[in-house]
Specification:
The structure holds two protein chains of two kinds.
Chain A: H1 13-25, H2 28-66, E1 70-75, H3 90-95, E2 100-109, E3 113-114, E4 128-132, H4 136-140, E5 144-147, E6 159-162, H5 164-170, E7 178-181, E8 184-192, H6 199-202, E9 204-208, H7 209-216, E10 224-229, H8 234-245, E11 253-256, H9 258-301, H10 303-312, H11 316-353, H12 361-388, H13 391-396
Parallel strand pairs in A: 4-9, 6-8
Antiparallel strand pairs in A: 1-10, 1-11, 2-4, 2-10, 3-7, 5-8, 6-9, 7-8
Helix pairs in contact in A: 1-11, 2-9, 2-11, 2-12, 9-11, 9-12, 11-12
Chain B: E1 12-21, E2 25-35, E3 40-44, H1 51-58, E4 66-71, E5 74-75, H2 81-91, E6 92-95, H3 107-113, H4 122-135, H5 151-163, E7 169-173, H6 181-196, E8 200-205, H7 208-213, E9 216-221, E10 224-228
Helix pairs in contact in B: 3-4, 3-5, 4-5, 5-6
The chains are: A alpha+beta, B alpha/beta.
Chain lengths: ~400, ~260
C-alpha cells in the first residue's frame, strides 16, 4: 500500500546539545543565578575535600621528614596507682638493645625557672625543668636556633637550654641571660627550635644531668627515654622495651610512638571534614532544587515553543530530551564553575598556610557525577511535563 | 521528500469527521474535505466555527473523535504519536498568526531549526534555510534577529521555515492576523508565489477578503462545511485582492514587495 513507514529522524548528540543550549542562551541572567546554586555546593565540597587533603598531605610530609622511628618510654603507674619510676640504669639498658641507634633521656626536676628571684614561686609559666642527656638533640633530630646545645663542659655547670615555647614565655630572645632556678642563677646558653615530635621539650628548660644532680637535687631517675631505631625494627624494639627498661615491673612502663599522634591528627581531621561536606551537600541539594524550579518555569514559559517544535515534527521523546539536556547543561555549567572556584579556594588557603595544595582526583570525579545526577533529577519532572503537553494546548497559549 | 502515490491523489482527505471536546462541546459535526496537490484553499469562517479544530486535525496535532483523516495518504487513526511526529516533520509546514520565532536567534537559524526533526545535517539545514529565505525575498536578512525585522518580514521568515523542507502541504493559520495591510500583502504575495511554484496551501482565516482572494474557499460554520467549490478548484491562480494592490501585475516576482 501507500503506507510507507514513518520513522522519526534521530537527533545527533550535537543537535541535542544545540537545542538544550538554545533555551539557556536567551536567558543568561537566570542561567547564571540558578547555576550559582550548584556552583556554591560543588565549590564548598571541593574546597572542603581539597583543604582537608592539603592539610593531611602537609602532616604526612612532616611525618616523612620527622620519621616514624622514634619511641618514647615513660613510667606508668604501679599496681597501687602510684606514680612509677624508671630505674636509674634504664637508659643504659635501652642503649644495649640491638637495633637501637640512639637513646637519650630527660628527667623531671622538682623546681621552677623564673626570670628573677623576685617572681613568686607559683608563677611557673607552665615551664618544666628537666635534666637532659647530652645526646638528646641528636636523638630528637632537633636544632638550636640561638646559642649552643649542652656539651661536656656545660652539662655540669649552671647552664640551661630553653625550649622554643619556654623561651617565648620567659621573654628571652638572646643567650647569656641569667634565670633563677632552684635557689641560684643559671645562664641561658641556647634556645631550641620547634620539636613537632616532642612538644614537651618545647615547654622545658633543660640542664645537664650532672648539673641537675649537683645544683637542683635531682635524683637521677629518668622520666622519659627517647629512642630511635631502624624503621623496620620499631615494632620489635617496642615489644622488648618494657622488659628491658624495668625487668622487675615491665607493666609499669608505657611506650608510645609520638608520630602516631601526628598520624592520628591526619585521620581525626576527617570528622570535621564530614560535617562540612554535609553542608556542601545541602548547598548542592538546594542548588538542584533551584535548577528544577528554573526548569519548571522554563517549561511553563515556553509552551508555545514546545507547541511549535511538536508542529515541526518533534516527538515527545525529543522534547523530553531537549529539556533534560537543558537541565544537564545548566547544572554542568554550575559544576564546572564550582570545581574551578573550589580548586582556587583550596589553592589560596593551602598556599596561605604554606601547605601543598592537593585536591584528590576522585573529588572532581565525584563533582562531575553529582552534577550529572542533580541535572537529571532536576530536569526529569519538567521534561516529562514538557513532553506530555498536548501540541494544540501548547499552541493555543497566548 | 514527496513520494509518488498513484492511487491516492489527495493531500488532505477528511471523511465524516467529527470532533468532540469534553463537556459536550461538539466542534465539528461531520466534515468532508478533499484537497488535491497544488491547490490554494481558504478555510474561512467566523471564530467558533470550528476552523481551528479543522486546522489541528489537518495538521495531525489532534485526532478526530469519529471519521477518517488522511494526510498525504496516511490514515492518522493508525499512527502512533511518534509516527505522527514524523509525518509532520516531512509532510507538513505550519505558519502561525504569532510567527513563533525564537527570540535572539538569526533568521537563518530560525528557518534551519525548522528542519531539525527531518534528520537533515546542520550544514544542509543552513543551506536549505538560506535558499528558503531567498525564496520569500529575505536573502539579504539572513543574520537579522526577529526583533530587527518588521512584522511582515518576521512572518515571511516563518513561512520560509515552513517551506524549507518542501512539504507537500503548507498550513497557514491566520497568517496576516497580526499584520497591517501592507505587511499582510507581503505575506500573501509570498504565498501566491509558493502556490505558483506548486505548493499545496491551506489558509485558515476569518477575513472574507483573504478568503475571496483564494481560488477555492471552504466556508465553515457551526462545525460544518457550508460552502465548498470542490476539490481541484484551488489550482487556479489567486484572484485580485484589495489588500494586494500588485496582485494582477505580479507574475512570479521573487523580490519582496516594498
Amino acid at each position: 500500500m501507500n503506507r510507507q513507514r514513518l520513522t522519526p529522524a534521530r537527533l545527533g548528540p550535537s543537535d541535542v546539545l544545540r537545542t538544550g543550549a538554545a533555551g539557556l542562551r536567551t536567558r543568561p541572567a537566570r542561567v547564571v543565578l540558578s547555576a550559582l546554586g550548584i556552583a556554591i555546593g560543588i565549590a564548598t565540597m571541593i574546597a572542603v575535600l581539597g583543604i582537608s587533603s592539603s592539610s593531611r598531605e602537609q602532616l604526612l610530609r612532616q611525618l616523612d621528614r620527622l620519621g616514624t622511628n622514634l619511641l618514647t618510654v615513660a613510667p606508668g603507674q604501679t599496681m597501687f596507682g602510684e606514680e612509677a619510676k624508671l630505674p636509674v640504669e634504664a637508659l643504659g639498658m635501652v642503649r644495649r638493645i640491638g637495633p637501637v641507634r640512639t637513646a637519650s633521656a630527660t628527667g623531671t626536676v622538682d623546681t621552677t625557672i623564673r626570670r628573677t628571684d623576685r617572681i613568686p614561686k607559683a608563677v611557673t609559666g607552665g615551664i618544666a625543668v628537666q635534666a637532659a642527656t647530652a645526646d638528646l638533640l641528636t636523638t630528637l633530630e632537633g636544632r638550636v636556633v640561638k646559642g649552643a646545645w649542652l656539651n661536656a663542659a656545660t652539662e655540669a655547670r649552671p647552664a640551661v637550654v630553653l625550649g622554643a615555647k619556654a623561651a617565648q614565655r620567659l621573654g628571652i630572645t638572646r643567650i647569656g641571660v641569667q634565670v633563677w632556678m632552684g635557689e641560684r642563677w643559671f645562664t641561658v646558653v641556647g634556645v631550641l627550635g620547634p620539636m613537632p615530635l616532642a612538644p614537651e621539650i618545647e615547654r622545658s628548660a633543660l640542664v645537664g644531668f650532672p648539673a641537675a644532680e649537683k645544683y637542683l637535687g635531682f635524683d637521677g631517675h629518668p622520666t622519659t627515654i627517647y629512642e630511635r631505631s631502624a624503621e623496620e625494627s620499631v615494632e620489635a624494639v617496642r615489644a622488648v622495651l618494657p622488659r628491658t627498661v624495668n625487668p622487675e615491673n615491665p607493666e609499669e612502663v608505657t611506650v608510645s610512638r609520638p608520630s602516631d599522634a601526628l598520624a592520628a591528627r591526619a585521620a581525626a581531621a576527617s570528622a570535621f571534614t564530614n560535617l562540612l561536606l554535609g553542608l556542601g551537600a545541602v548547598a548542592l541539594l538546594v542548588g538542584g532544587v533551584g535548577v528544577a524550579n528554573t526548569m519548571v518555569i522554563s517549561v511553563l514559559e515556553r509552551r508555545k515553543e514546545i507547541g511549535l517544535r511538536r508542529s515541526l515534527g518533534a516527538t515527545r521523546g525529543q522534547v523530553r530530551l531537549q529539556f533534560l539536556a537543558e537541565s544537564l547543561l545548566l547544572s554542568a555549567l554550575g559544576g564546572i564553575a564550582g570545581a574551578v572556584l573550589g580548586g582556587l579556594a583550596t589553592a589560596g588557603y593551602a598556599l596561605s598556610r604554606g601547605w601543598p595544595p592537593v585536591v584528590p582526583a576522585w573529588a572532581f570525579a565525584g563533582a562531575v557525577g553529582a552534577t550529572l545526577v542533580i541535572g537529571t533529577l532536576a530536569g526529569l519532572y519538567p521534561a516529562m511535563r514538557a513532553a506530555r503537553l498536548s501540541p494544540t494546548v501548547a499552541l493555543a497559549t497566548t | 521528500m514527496s513520494i509518488p502515490q498513484p492511487e491516492q491523489p489527495y493531500v488532505v482527505e477528511l471523511r465524516e469527521v467529527t470532533k468532540d471536546y469534553g463537556g459536550g462541546v461538539r466542534a465539528l459535526r461531520g466534515v468532508d474535505l478533499l484537497v488535491e496537490p497544488g491547490e490554494l484553499v481558504a478555510i474561512a469562517g467566523p471564530s467558533g466555527s470550528g476552523k481551528s479544530t479543522l486546522l489541528h486535525l489537518i495538521g495531525t496535532l489532534d485526532r478526530p473523535t469519529t471519521g477518517t483523516v488522511r494526510i498525504a495518504g496516511h490514515d492518522v487513526a493508525g499512527l502512533s504519536d511518534r509516527e505522527l511526529s514524523a509525518l509532520r516533520a516531512r509532510h507538513l509546514g505550519f505558519v502561525f498568526q504569532q510567527f513563533h520565532l525564537a527570540p535572539g536567534v538569526s533568521a537563518l537559524d530560525n528557518v534551519a531549526d525548522g528542519l531539525l526533526y527531518t534528520g537533515t545535517p546542520l550544514r544542509a539545514r543552513r543551506e536549505r534555510a538560506a535558499a528558503a529565505l531567498e525564496r520569500v525575498g529575505l536573502g539579504h536578512r539572513l543574520g537579522h534577529r526577529p526583533n530587527q525585522l518588521s512584522g511582515g518580514e518576521q512572518q515571511r521568515v516563518a513561512v520560509a521555515r515552513a517551506v524549507a523542507g518542501d512539504p507537500p502541504l503548507l498550513l497557514a493559520d491566520e497568517p496576516t492576523g497580526n499584520l497591517d495591510s501592507a505587511a499582510g500583502a507581503e505575506v500573501l504575495g509570498v504565498l501566491r508565489d509558493l502556490h505558483a511554484a506548486g505548493t499545496t496551501i491551506a489558509v485558515i482565516t476569518h477575513d472574507p477578503d483573504i478568503a475571496e482572494w483564494c481560488p477555492r474557499q471552504v466556508r465553515v460554520r457551526d462545525g460544518r462545511v457550508v460552502a465548498d467549490a470542490g476539490a481541484g478548484a484551488g489550482r487556479r491562480p489567486p484572484g485580485a485582492n484589495p489588500k494586494l494592490p500588485d496582485a494582477e501585475t505580479a507574475g512570479a516576482a521573487k523580490g519582496a514587495p516594498r
